[in-house]
Amino acid sequence: MDIKKILVELSNTDGPSGYEEAVLQKIEKLIAPYVDRTWRNSMSTLIAEKRGNGKGKLGVFAHADEVGFVISKIEEDGFARIEVTGGIDPKVSMAQRVKIYTRDGATSGVIGFLAPHLQKEEDRKSMPHPDNIFVDISCSEKRVRVGDVSVPDVEACEINSKISGKALDNRSGCASLIWAAKMLQKIRNEWDLYFIFSSEEEIAGPGARTIAYELNLDKAIVVDVTHANEKVPGYPLIKLGEGPVLTIGPMVDKSFKDKISEICSRNGLKTQIEPAPIHSGTDADEVQIARIGISTTVVSIPLLFMHSPVETVDPKDVEETARLIAVVAAEMEV
Amino acid sequence: MLYLKELTEIGGVSGDESRVRDFIASKIKDKVDETHVDKLGNLIALKKGKKNGKRFLLAAHMDEIGFMVTNIEDDGTLSFSPIGGVDPRVVPGKRVKIADKVTGVIGYKAIHLQKKEEIFKVPAFENLRIYIGTDSKEASSKLVNIGDSVVFTTEYREENGRATGKAFDDRAGCSVMMDLIDNIDRYDFDVYFAFLVQEEVGLRGSAVIAEQIQPDVAIVLEGTTAGDNPEVPEYKWATHIGDGPAVTFMHRGYVVSSKVVQNIMSIAQKNGIPYQAKRRTAGGTDAARLAGTWRGVPSGVISVPSRYIHSPVSMIDLNDYHNTVRLVEKILDEGEVFFK
Amino acid sequence: MIETIRKLAEAYGPSGREEDVHRIILEELKNHIDGYKFDRVGNLIVWKDGKSGKKVMLDAHSDEIGLVVTNIDKNGFLRVETVGGVPPHPYVGQRVKFPQCTGIVYVEGETSQDMKKNFSNLSFDVMYVDIGASSYEEAQKVAPIGTFGVYDSRFMQNGDFLTSKAMDDRVGCAVVIEVLKRLNSPNNTVYCSFSTQEEIGLMGARVAGYDIMPEACIAIDVTASSDTPKAFKRHAMVLKKGPAIKVKDRASISDRKIVDKLIELAEESGIPYQMEVLIMGGTNAAAFQATASGIASATVSIPTRYVHTPSETVHLDDIKNCVNLLIEYVQKGV
């Protein structure tokens, strides 16, 4: 199994928020050979434990859910209305095929868009409002119901050695955890290590915070993705291919982050920096304040076109992120 | 006000409160039975009770609003972004301190050089820069780092019964607690003093307090908005400085129980301490977190009214400050009523 | 049941001041429960013991939206702010009931232009309350700053359509009461919370489950209904189709296993039901999910017309079927 294959396989497995089961099963199969045990908690989070010598508990988090849609109404004549699960820009949602998960299995739909010939002049000036978007389910052989979840119907591909597909937010994070576990298989870690694949991050759900509470962790690394190659005025430019990104801000324990930076420079691991003055927009915001508080850091994989069906990552960044996790886990309080 | 001047002048933005914490810890350590810094950096002090039964918690947050250095630009100036809610209109033309060591100024293009339309436009943070006297990225990188904290450099002053300075939200609350630690005796119940971190970025420090201390009741001490200036109609004021400590009945996400509000107000009345109800429900405090974590902690909020909070210069009335200390003292004297 | 709904809906219980509602609930439940307590923030928790060792929890919030007095002018007119999501329009020319007096709410405007502007951009900033006082002192005596008020509206019936203020969520409370009354020998121990301060941010529910940590929790609340002229087109919920099993709203996604179980039980027992995706709003289920190490939670809703107005309207059949469905769940669901 190479990292590109894992990325493609996870990207092509469907798991919108609240419905991550298929993804968790895939991940469990991939990581099981490298850990001591795996289990689920009451909130359907997957935990893979690699026991150490009990010196402390380190949790490494990657959310397993992706953004998607849910059918909110069935109209006449084979159409339906949708609601988004997570933040999706209408600009990347129009005119695409979607997969809909009905009670009888997966089926197809099309988010349709009126041809230019028939459009009114004023309508061309703006994107349709979410209330006016519809899914054409007349091509579906199975019965679609309110509450059925849906994702864009795309398969990942390689573009000049990068991987492009849906859900790389945060399947690339998940892939980095699996790869880190693989890298650690011959290493005996001092700290108890938990690889945590949590749910519902895209809707700011309770998946990560509840497992953080349950495990009573001492330290946490939250692995997610961040925007690459988009110059935001006043912020450093994060580049694809230049390594994992370390967040600095109130939700991060600065001394833990400084330790990680130091371990990285000793190991020839290049990192980038992302200032987050108030929120990180990741599960770290909730994990840090779980129970009696957890020393937390955020490590992000650079990603293009977040929350679109053409998200793109550089597998090198995913591997380096895995290497960062492995090296930090190996060096924890030795 | 032994401590108010020093407390307000220390730089301690959300996530970088260590200097405030060190100052408070150094002053209180010999006057309490235990102190402890938790995983998020909250400073928790305990004055043990004689009968070791119930637990009364007093809380105030140590952090102030400020900024983070988000980028070092090619010309040596620093880009920055607010930590906490800061209106960009109070920012240009101010002196700041970065990482507690480097002085800088937030300038703006001179009015002479601006087009007419620009003069009244609201500045955007992404266009503002801190100048630290260098002219290259390399030179600035030797002095500061991305992620460094930035604070205003306002000095504390007392004049005409009023005090002006920065960060009365919530160094006033911290100062009230430090005065109480100096003054109070031992009660039957334990009194916990929690000096909290990161309130301004989402009530974060208080989120881990209830699980640790497990208090029976809490009172949050804040520096709250006033709004009493000539541009705001009277019915929109939150408080009027000089009318006494403000007692909150409701704020964002939380309604204080009528029992707690009544108890606070009747203790004030009984002891002839002036007080006012806070008259706007906007804004939130750590009370919402305390009531909404662990098993829930019934919490009240008492504030020193403060004009112009979240800006470089705020103002409080010193009588309000003293009356706040008095009120909380009397509340502790009658603490048992809060446990019923 | 109608009489219980009427008593509860007409009771005074704005967020943070739910005592009267709790009193009525306890009267109704006398001899039907094994115990009750008020937790530290005023949630009313009741229970009925079962034999299985497992715990199921039902929640209905006891508070309603309202107004709170924030200012009294020298002529005795009051200014108010909202408690929860209160639309200003239903209050214009209508009455607000305070514990000791009732006031009329109206809009200010010194010129006809001002009046027009205020009406088209209505908010409580430009509204005031007249309690028939002529001075600050007079008003102070009966409605001091910090006094809470609710819609002054009476219960009425049009056949099986029941209308009143505060059906959100007194109808939920009534459903839970009826479940407890009809539950003779529960298999599982059933805890019911009549929680506080939901309308201002799910406050009571954040802690109501902490000491109980049940296997599952179902919040019973109202949801929108789209069976009126030109109603919101993305919603599928309507009156008379049965209780709505909620898949998603803006605060949470219902636990998938609970949703599937509810569907299974409804179909087995021939209880009519509908599926729900709500585009706006949230329920206490979100707060229970995030409690400690997590409580698997879902919402079952009563479709309601005119939510957050003085004339919230529900249908008796939906209420009865909701009771039936919940009895099935508490007996067989965990």
Key terms:
heterotrimer, A: 334 residues, alpha+beta, 6-stranded antiparallel barrel, 7 helices, 28% strand, C: 334 residues, 8-stranded mixed beta sheet, globular
| Share of helix of chain A, binned | 10-25%
User: What are the segments of chain C in which pLDDT stays under 50 over at least 5 consecutive residues?
Assistant: none
Main sheet specs of chain C:
8 strands, mixed
Distance between the termini of chain A: 30 Å
- Calculate the mean pLDDT score of chain C and round it: 97
> So what's the oligomer here?
heterotrimer
Instruction: Strand order, main sheet of chain C: write it out.
Output: 1-2-12-3-13-16-14-15
Could you describe the largest sheet of chain A, including whether it forms a barrel?
A: 8 strands, mixed
User: In order across it, which strands form the biggest sheet of chain A?
Assistant: 1-2-12-3-13-16-14-15
User: What is the string of helix and strand elements of chain A?
Assistant: HHEEEEEEEEEEEHEHEEHEHEEH
SSE series of chain C = HHEEEEEEEHEHEEEHEHEEHEHEEH
Tally of individual helices of chain C: 9
Terminal residue distance of chain C: 27 Å
Q: Which two chains have the most extensive interface, and how many residues on each? A: A-C, 31 and 30 residues
Secondary structure: number of strands of chain C: 17
Radius of gyration of chain A: 20 Å
* Class from secondary-structure proportions of chain C: alpha+beta
The average pLDDT score of chain A comes to 96
Strand % of chain C is 25-35%
Can you walk through the features of this model?
The complex is a heterotrimer of chains A (334), B (340) and C (334). Chain A is an alpha+beta fold. Chain A contains seven helices and 17 strands. Chain A has helices at 3-12, 21-31, 168-183, 207-215, 254-266, 284-287, 315-331; strands at 37-40, 46-50, 57-63, 68-74, 79-85, 96-102, 105-111, 135-136, 149-152, 157-159, 162-165, 192-198, 219-227, 245-248, 272-275, 295-303, 311-313. In chain A, the strands form three sheets. In chain A, strands 1-2-12-3-13-16-14-15 form an eight-stranded mixed beta sheet, with helices on both faces. In chain A, strands 4-5-8-7-6-9 form a six-stranded antiparallel β-barrel. A three-stranded antiparallel beta sheet of chain A has the order 10-11-17. The two termini of chain A are 30 Å apart. In chain B, the strands form three sheets. In chain B, strands 1, 2, 3, 10, 11, 12, 13, 14, 17, 18 and 19 form an eleven-stranded mixed beta sheet that branches. In chain B, strands 5-4-9-6-7-8 form a six-stranded antiparallel beta sheet. In chain B, strands 15-16 form a two-stranded antiparallel ribbon. In chain B, strand 10 (157-159) and strand 11 (162-165) form a beta hairpin. In chain B, helix 5 (168-183) crosses helix 9 (318-333). Chain B starts with a helix and ends in a 7-residue tail after the last helix. Helix content of chain C is 28%, strand content 27%. In chain C, helix 7 (256-269) links the parallel strand 14 and strand 15 (274-277). In chain C, helix 1 (2-10) packs across helix 5. The longest helix of chain C has 17 residues, at 316-332. The chains are: A alpha+beta (334), B alpha+beta (340), C alpha+beta (334). The interface between A and B is medium-sized, with 24 and 29 residues.
